[in-house]
């Protein structure tokens, strides 16, 4: 899920019309495909719409929205995000976070050194890496228990214990 504007999170993207009755083929961008179940509330161009029906075809959702009844009405939606409001996200187990919750956190070391703010998350086979940017450097923080000691969403802060070489090898520019 990706945050778009304040308050909305992208859960899918409309790829193309599907058939002549206004159905839409959707690239799903959420770990919760049940978001595309019939009767679900979603937003397209920040307008509320209800999913009337859905089916799956080759890993893509094919949905029918309550306000789209023809291929002519569906065509202009190609490329648009399908979103939910932030207050519609499903709660996650303790210690798990949505990407939009991590981006923007201030990062500090256990010694109290402020490192900057998480600007991006890179996914690799083994683990995610948080990109922390400052004016003169970029630091890659591996999202592993040995490094990330705590995340406090209320404070907007991540506390890390740098492993040997982490803060010196990752400098860019400076």
Task: Please give a structural write-up.
The mean pLDDT is 89. The chain starts with a strand and ends in a 5-residue tail after the last helix. 7% of the residues lie in helices and 45% in strands. The chain has helices at residues 71-74, 99-102, 166-169, and strands at residues 2-3, 8-18, 23-28, 41-44, 47-57, 60-65, 81-85, 106-109, 114-123, 128-133, 138-142, 148-152, 157-160. The strands form two sheets. The chain has a six-stranded antiparallel barrel. A six-stranded mixed beta sheet has the order 11-10-9-8-13-12, with no helix packed on it. Strand 2 (8-18) and strand 3 form a beta hairpin.
Q: What descriptors fit this protein?
A:
single chain; 174 residues; mainly beta; Elongation Factor Tu (Ef-tu), domain 3; SH3 type barrels; 2 domains; six-stranded mixed β-sheet
Strands, helices and their partners?
Blueprint lengths: L1 E2 L4 E11 L4 E6 L12 E4 L2 E11 L2 E6 L5 H4 L6 E5 L13 H4 L3 E4 L4 E10 L4 E6 L4 E5 L5 E5 L4 E4 L5 H4 L5
Parallel strand pairs: 8-13
Antiparallel strand pairs: 1-2, 2-3, 2-7, 3-6, 4-5, 4-7, 5-6, 8-9, 9-10, 10-11, 12-13
């Amino acid at each position: 899920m990706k945050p778009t504007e304040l308050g909305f999170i992208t859960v899918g993207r409309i790829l193309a019309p599907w058939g002549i009755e206004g159905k839409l083929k959707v690239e799903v961008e959420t770990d919760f495909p049940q978001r595309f179940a019939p009767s679900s509330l979603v937003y397209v161009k920040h307008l509320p719409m209800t999913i009337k029906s859905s089916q799956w075809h080759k890993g893509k959702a094919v949905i029918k929205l309550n306000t789209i009844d023809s291929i002519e009405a569906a065509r202009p939606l190609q490329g648009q995000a399908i979103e939910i409001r932030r207050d519609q996200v499903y709660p996650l187990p303790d210690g798990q976070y949505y990407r939009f919750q991590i981006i923007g956190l201030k990062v500090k070391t256990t010694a109290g050194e402020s490192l900057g703010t998480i600007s991006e998350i890179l996914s690799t086979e083994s683990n995610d890496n948080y990109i922390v940017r400052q004016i003169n450097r970029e630091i890659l923080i591996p999202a592993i228990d040995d490094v990330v000691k705590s995340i406090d969403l209320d404070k907007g802060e991540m506390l890390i214990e740098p492993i040997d070489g982490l803060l010196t090898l990752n400098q860019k520019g400076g």
